[in-house]
Structure formats: C-alpha cells, structure tokens
Amino acid sequence: MSYSTKLTENLNRQDPNSRPPPLVLLRWLASFALKRGSPLHWRQRLALAFIRAQRAIVPAGVRRRNLRRELTGQGIIAYCAKKGLVVKTVQLEASSTTYKAGLDVPAPTLHFIAAPGASDQSGATTLLYFHGGGYVNPMRAGGHVPFALQCAEACGAREVVFLEYALAPEYPYPAQLVQAVAAFRYLLEGDSHLSVDDIVLAGDSAGGNLVGSLLAHLASPSPYAAPVDLAGHTLKAAVFVCPWTMMHVNQASFATNDAYDYLNRPQALQFKAEWNPAEGEVWANLCDAPAASAVWDAAFGRAGKPGVVSKALVTSGSAEVLVDSCNLFAKNHLRGELVVADSGTDLSVLDGKDFVSVECNGEVHVQPALDAFMGYKDGVMMRAIARFLKTV
C-alpha cells in the first residue's frame, strides 16, 4: 500500500460518507507538487499537504464527528491489536479526582504499553505521555503511539503510559489538570510504585500545555487538586513538543506561517473557547499568566534551589504558527539555549544541556507524530528529541 493511500484511508475510514471530494484531492496534489523547494522530506510534505487540503475543504463539524468516532482508549487498543503490542488499561478510582468540592471531573484512564526492547532487566524509567488535540480531539493513535514509543526507546523507558483525559467542551479547564495529577500520583502510589526520579513527562500541543500544567502544580499547587509531596526528588525529564503556552493568538507567526502549517488562528481560538481556560492562572496560561515567572523559577530551579524536574526540552517547527509562543516560553521561563536545527545539524550540540529548546527548520506543528504515522524516522524534531532523551 502506498503512503498516500494509507494516509487517505486512515484519516477517512471512520465515515465513508465524508471521504474527500475530488477538489480536496486536486488541492492536495497541487500543494504537494508546488512545494518542491521545501526542506521537508517528500513523506512529510505529502502528509502535510493532505491535512491542509482536507481542513480547507471538509467542514469543521464533519471533521469533528469523524475524529470523535474513535476515542483515545479505543484508538490505542485498536493500534496495539494491529501491531501485536500488549496494552494494560487501568481505570482510576473516582476518589482520585474529587479534591475540590463541586468540580465535576471523571476519573481518568491510563494505558500502559511496554517500550520496544524492554525486558525484566529494564530499569524503572517510565514515560508518561499527554496527547494533543486542543483538549477537544482524541489522540490519533497511528501517529502518537509510535512517536511515544520512539521517545521511550530513546530514554530507555520500560513502558509508555498514556493518559486518556476527558475532552472539552464537555469537560473544560481544569479537568485535564486534575486528571494529570491523579495519573502522576497513581504512578507513585499505585501498582507501579515508581519514584519521582523514574518519570519522564512528555506531551505535544495541548498535551505540552498539560506537561507544563502538571509541573506548575508540582511547584505551586493549584486549588483544583491536592499538592504532591516530591520529598526532595525531581522528575527525570520533561519534553514539551510544540506546546500550547499562550492563550492569545497575536504572535506574528500566526500570520507568517499560516500558509505552511495545518493549524491556524481560527482553530486555536476555537480550541480555546471550548476548553475555556482561566487566562490569569499559570496552570492554563503557561507563558504570560501573572505568576508565571515565579512559578517557573520554582519549577525549573533558580538561584541554587532545586526545581521539580532535572532536565527539560522545548521543541518547535519554524513553519508552525505556535513557533513564536514556544520560543517565548523557552526564552522567558526555560532560559536555556535555543538551537536552530536542520537536517545537517550535528545534534550532539544538545549533549550536556539540561534546559534547551530546538527550533526545527521547515517543520510544522507536532511534526514527529506526522512523521511516525508516515513511517519516517529522520525528521529533525524527532531526532532532536531522541538525542535529548538519550542523555536523561
């Protein structure tokens, strides 16, 4: 099966009545053909051109219905069955999300998948992964699962744990933060009995926001979930993949990259409206909430004081609409070196850097998930993430 056929069937298999009309396919092929000068590999360009064409033509409501026909857990289980992977699903107790009276948050579900090459002799390192989708869409297992498994392999993790969180608008902010805290606490206190030092956090887009939300809660507890006592320990690492860090959309990259990325300003505003974050709270608005500087100083460790995580990476694509906000978060709060990378960059430059950001030339929003779906393993962002994780 060709890559284009595989992509078309996967993105439209849930609703045979909404397969792209000829106009979509023509626009897709034209977009692919006209970007020959792009620094992206042809597989990357093919996936991006299709998504942009589909989103330009297929009504948003139809896309939403299709995406929600297969929820996160269903997608993970189906993917694992197809690939012969063993998945263990754990439904947390209802009491795990009942800290704040009157806050309606369902107990989350966790999905455990053994990492490639893991054995009984593997260490305890575990990757806790939060998927993107604007807090509105479920995880796309065909891209997210293989991407997360590559991350787990890079850092020597024995397993990946996916959080299946409740979706907005049915469950707006702060439901996902409450569930993330419950998931983290379960890894420490449940059957896994992990140490804080065993855990690597990673997430993309809204999932990157949730990585930050959880770290911020660990450093400065929110009123929505119980504080977590780390007992002086720090998480092994955190990876923010193209994170959603700012709630407004007036950054210049929303205009300059509108012609390249598949995410755009109207979509970002729609996600925000449905998630309904409290913009003055750092657990939602990571970059420019009033308390952001103080909270991130505590989270990342400043003035000789330990933080809550030992190492952190922020990635972005130079052609994505969120690149400005990603870079601003990294500059103001991560305060690590910015590495601008392309296919020829020697990524050993990341070695020895505990806090670092990487802007990947020509790549778009959450490029590694698109690459993983297409079976392409040489994307700049994916290689940068893998290089960083090999050092944790």
- Looking at the structure, the CATH topology of the largest domain is Rossmann fold
Q: Please list the strands of the largest sheet in the order they lie side by side.
A: 1-2-4-3-5-6-7-9-8
Estimated share of beta-strand residues: 5-15%
Question: How many β-strand stretches?
Answer: 9
Helical/strand content category: alpha/beta
Low-confidence stretches: 1-18
Helical content stands at: 40-55%
User: At the first level of CATH, what is the class of the largest domain?
Assistant: Alpha Beta
Largest pleated sheet: 9 strands, mixed
Radius of gyration equals 20 Å
Give the CA-CA distance, first to last residue. 38 Å
Shape: globular
Total number of domains: 2
Describe this structure in words.
The chain folds into two domains: 1-69; 71-389, Alpha/Beta hydrolase fold, catalytic domain (Rossmann fold, 3-Layer(aba) Sandwich). The protein is 40% helix and 13% strand. It has 14 helices and nine strands. The chain has a nine-stranded mixed sheet, with helices on both faces. α8 (206-219) crosses α11. The protein is globular, with a radius of gyration of 20 Å.
